[in-house]
Write a structure and sequence with these properties.
Number of domains: 1
Number of helices: 5
CATH class: Alpha Beta
CATH architecture: 3-Layer(aba) Sandwich
Distance between the termini: 52 Å
Structural class: alpha/beta
Strand order of the largest sheet: 3-2-1-4-5
Shape: globular
CATH superfamily: HUPs
Length: 160
Protein backbone atom coordinates (compact mmCIF):
# COMPACT_ATOMS: atom_id res chain seq x y z
CA UNK A 1 0.00 0.00 0.00
CA UNK A 2 1.33 3.43 -0.94
CA UNK A 3 1.49 5.93 1.87
CA UNK A 4 2.93 8.89 -0.03
CA UNK A 5 2.31 10.47 -3.43
CA UNK A 6 6.00 11.19 -4.08
CA UNK A 7 9.12 9.88 -2.35
CA UNK A 8 12.83 10.21 -3.03
CA UNK A 9 15.68 7.75 -2.73
CA UNK A 10 19.28 8.26 -3.78
CA UNK A 11 22.46 6.33 -4.31
CA UNK A 12 25.28 5.26 -6.54
CA UNK A 13 23.66 1.90 -7.27
CA UNK A 14 26.94 0.46 -8.58
CA UNK A 15 26.90 -3.33 -9.03
CA UNK A 16 23.15 -3.28 -8.28
CA UNK A 17 22.82 -5.80 -5.44
CA UNK A 18 20.27 -7.27 -3.07
CA UNK A 19 20.68 -4.39 -0.60
CA UNK A 20 20.01 -1.80 -3.32
CA UNK A 21 16.98 -3.78 -4.45
CA UNK A 22 15.58 -3.88 -0.89
CA UNK A 23 15.98 -0.08 -0.66
CA UNK A 24 14.29 0.48 -4.03
CA UNK A 25 11.51 -2.03 -3.31
CA UNK A 26 10.73 -0.22 -0.06
CA UNK A 27 10.61 3.13 -1.88
CA UNK A 28 8.04 1.72 -4.30
CA UNK A 29 6.12 0.10 -1.42
CA UNK A 30 5.60 3.45 0.31
CA UNK A 31 5.53 5.81 -2.68
CA UNK A 32 3.19 6.15 -5.61
CA UNK A 33 5.91 8.03 -7.57
CA UNK A 34 9.60 7.51 -6.80
CA UNK A 35 12.28 10.07 -7.59
CA UNK A 36 15.60 8.19 -7.80
CA UNK A 37 18.69 10.35 -7.44
CA UNK A 38 21.57 8.59 -9.17
CA UNK A 39 25.01 9.95 -8.30
CA UNK A 40 26.82 11.56 -11.21
CA UNK A 41 30.35 10.54 -12.16
CA UNK A 42 31.62 13.84 -10.72
CA UNK A 43 29.88 13.28 -7.37
CA UNK A 44 31.19 9.70 -7.21
CA UNK A 45 34.73 11.03 -7.75
CA UNK A 46 34.24 13.53 -4.90
CA UNK A 47 33.07 10.72 -2.59
CA UNK A 48 36.46 9.02 -2.79
CA UNK A 49 35.13 5.46 -3.05
CA UNK A 50 37.77 2.76 -2.39
CA UNK A 51 37.10 1.11 -5.76
CA UNK A 52 36.31 2.03 -9.32
CA UNK A 53 32.66 2.69 -10.10
CA UNK A 54 30.73 2.03 -13.28
CA UNK A 55 29.81 5.13 -15.29
CA UNK A 56 26.58 7.02 -14.74
CA UNK A 57 25.26 5.68 -18.06
CA UNK A 58 26.05 2.06 -17.12
CA UNK A 59 24.49 2.41 -13.66
CA UNK A 60 21.41 4.14 -15.10
CA UNK A 61 20.97 1.35 -17.66
CA UNK A 62 21.20 -1.35 -14.94
CA UNK A 63 18.72 0.57 -12.79
CA UNK A 64 16.26 0.96 -15.67
CA UNK A 65 16.59 -2.76 -16.46
CA UNK A 66 15.77 -3.63 -12.84
CA UNK A 67 12.80 -1.23 -12.75
CA UNK A 68 11.46 -2.46 -16.10
CA UNK A 69 11.75 -6.10 -15.05
CA UNK A 70 9.71 -5.34 -11.91
CA UNK A 71 7.13 -3.26 -13.82
CA UNK A 72 8.12 -0.12 -11.88
CA UNK A 73 9.67 2.06 -14.60
CA UNK A 74 6.43 4.01 -15.14
CA UNK A 75 6.38 5.09 -11.49
CA UNK A 76 10.04 6.13 -11.41
CA UNK A 77 11.98 9.19 -12.43
CA UNK A 78 15.78 8.87 -12.42
CA UNK A 79 17.56 12.20 -11.96
CA UNK A 80 21.29 13.01 -11.73
CA UNK A 81 22.46 13.49 -8.14
CA UNK A 82 25.26 16.07 -7.97
CA UNK A 83 25.38 16.35 -4.16
CA UNK A 84 23.87 14.80 -1.03
CA UNK A 85 20.73 16.97 -1.31
CA UNK A 86 19.70 16.45 -4.91
CA UNK A 87 16.18 17.77 -5.52
CA UNK A 88 15.17 17.53 -1.85
CA UNK A 89 15.73 21.27 -1.44
CA UNK A 90 13.75 22.31 -4.52
CA UNK A 91 11.05 19.68 -4.94
CA UNK A 92 8.10 20.79 -2.80
CA UNK A 93 5.92 17.80 -3.75
CA UNK A 94 8.22 15.32 -2.00
CA UNK A 95 6.68 13.77 1.09
CA UNK A 96 9.21 11.17 2.19
CA UNK A 97 12.83 10.12 1.86
CA UNK A 98 13.76 6.44 1.81
CA UNK A 99 17.22 5.82 3.28
CA UNK A 100 19.31 2.93 4.55
CA UNK A 101 20.51 2.72 8.13
CA UNK A 102 23.85 3.85 6.71
CA UNK A 103 22.44 7.05 5.17
CA UNK A 104 19.87 7.96 7.82
CA UNK A 105 22.08 10.80 9.12
CA UNK A 106 22.09 12.35 5.63
CA UNK A 107 18.28 12.24 5.66
CA UNK A 108 18.23 14.06 9.00
CA UNK A 109 20.65 16.68 7.63
CA UNK A 110 18.41 17.14 4.58
CA UNK A 111 15.41 17.77 6.85
CA UNK A 112 17.35 20.32 8.91
CA UNK A 113 18.32 22.18 5.72
CA UNK A 114 14.75 21.94 4.33
CA UNK A 115 13.52 23.57 7.53
CA UNK A 116 16.04 26.38 7.13
CA UNK A 117 14.71 27.17 3.64
CA UNK A 118 11.08 27.02 4.73
CA UNK A 119 10.11 23.56 3.47
CA UNK A 120 8.31 20.96 5.54
CA UNK A 121 10.47 18.08 6.76
CA UNK A 122 10.24 14.81 4.87
CA UNK A 123 9.09 11.63 6.53
CA UNK A 124 12.19 9.44 6.78
CA UNK A 125 11.68 5.76 5.98
CA UNK A 126 14.68 3.73 7.14
CA UNK A 127 15.50 0.42 5.48
CA UNK A 128 17.69 -2.10 7.29
CA UNK A 129 20.96 -3.08 5.65
CA UNK A 130 20.83 -6.54 4.06
CA UNK A 131 23.41 -8.93 5.52
CA UNK A 132 25.64 -11.15 3.43
CA UNK A 133 26.46 -14.74 4.42
CA UNK A 134 29.33 -13.39 6.54
CA UNK A 135 26.77 -11.27 8.50
CA UNK A 136 28.30 -8.00 7.23
CA UNK A 137 26.05 -5.73 5.16
CA UNK A 138 26.10 -6.40 1.43
CA UNK A 139 28.18 -3.63 -0.16
CA UNK A 140 29.50 -2.80 -3.59
CA UNK A 141 32.98 -2.58 -2.04
CA UNK A 142 32.81 -6.22 -0.89
CA UNK A 143 31.44 -7.27 -4.28
CA UNK A 144 34.20 -5.42 -6.16
CA UNK A 145 36.82 -6.99 -3.85
CA UNK A 146 35.51 -10.40 -4.88
CA UNK A 147 34.44 -11.32 -1.32
CA UNK A 148 30.70 -11.78 -2.04
CA UNK A 149 28.36 -11.85 -5.01
CA UNK A 150 25.44 -9.45 -5.57
CA UNK A 151 23.19 -11.64 -3.43
CA UNK A 152 25.61 -11.66 -0.51
CA UNK A 153 26.90 -15.18 -1.03
CA UNK A 154 30.53 -15.68 -0.08
CA UNK A 155 32.90 -16.28 -2.95
CA UNK A 156 35.49 -18.94 -2.28
CA UNK A 157 39.04 -17.89 -2.96
CA UNK A 158 40.98 -20.34 -5.06
CA UNK A 159 44.57 -20.75 -3.86
CA UNK A 160 47.05 -20.45 -6.69
Amino acid sequence: MNHFKKVAVGGTFDKLHRGHKALLDRAFDVGEKVLIGLTTDRFVAEMGKPHRTASFAQRQKALMGFLSKRGLAGRAEIVPLNDAYGLTLSERALEALVVSEETQKIGEKINKTRGAVGYCPLEIVVVSLVPAENHCPISTTSIRRGEIDRNGRLIEKVDS
